[in-house]
């Protein structure tokens, strides 16, 4: 069920920044810095942060209800390591993270944007794939999941062409890992047994 819209926006102070903030000061501790794009109802972000309290986790979700609800749930649970930003990741991410500063980028079940006129809204496109590669540390990981097979194939092609390394071989999807944290949407597919296409790509060391 959709949450009611909470009154206070989340993460808007980051949106106009022209340069990365001091993330150590923002979180109050040092540690890996991870990004999730399109966190939706927040199932993955919240559970991942709970399991990994040493990770500083920034989640983008442009639907205000979901973004605010996720941040509120993190605060109610006393979590210090999650910041949700209710904005379009494609425009803000390149300005608020320094090149080579991210340990992991998570992208789960991105909207497939079926209509041709909407295709430009897709997160994984050649230019933005290069931006994401540049923001990761050498050896940093890109974790992607989707239920849409042709989008999965197309995204993998774009990411590999941008310079991401696929340790399993070009075009090969990653098997299900029971240790990974499922997203809200993924839980549905795990229950129904419908296929999920996963990729774990790496930024080459040099
Ligand atoms: C299909 S939902 C999946 C949500 C979640 N990752 C999951 O697996 O349950 C995709 C989400 O990405 C968000 N989204 C799509 N493009 C975005 C963008 N450019 N910036 C921020 N959020 C975006 C949508 O609002 C939506 O909540």
TrEMBL record:
Transmembrane segments: none annotated. It is an enzyme of class 2 (transferase). It holds the Pfam family Methyltransf_4. Pathway: tRNA modification; N(7)-methylguanine-tRNA biosynthesis. Its EC number is 2.1.1.33. Keywords: Methyltransferase, S-adenosyl-L-methionine, Transferase, tRNA processing. GO terms for molecular function: tRNA (guanine(46)-N7)-methyltransferase activity. Substrate binds at residues 115, 147. It comes from the Bacteria. It catalyses: guanosine(46) in tRNA + S-adenosyl-L-methionine = N(7)-methylguanosine(46) in tRNA + S-adenosyl-L-homocysteine. GO terms for cellular component: tRNA methyltransferase complex. Gene3D superfamilies: Vaccinia Virus protein VP39 (3.40.50.150). SUPFAM superfamilies: S-adenosyl-L-methionine-dependent methyltransferases. S-adenosyl-L-methionine binds at residues 36, 61, 88, 111. Catalyzes the formation of N(7)-methylguanine at position 46 (m7G46) in tRNA. Belongs to the class I-like SAM-binding methyltransferase superfamily. TrmB family. PANTHER family: 3-DEOXY-D-MANNO-OCTULOSONIC-ACID TRANSFERASE/TRNA GUANINE-N 7 - -METHYLTRANSFERASE, PENTACOTRIPEPTIDE-REPEAT REGION OF PRORP DOMAIN-CONTAINING PROTEIN. This is tRNA (guanine-N(7)-)-methyltransferase.
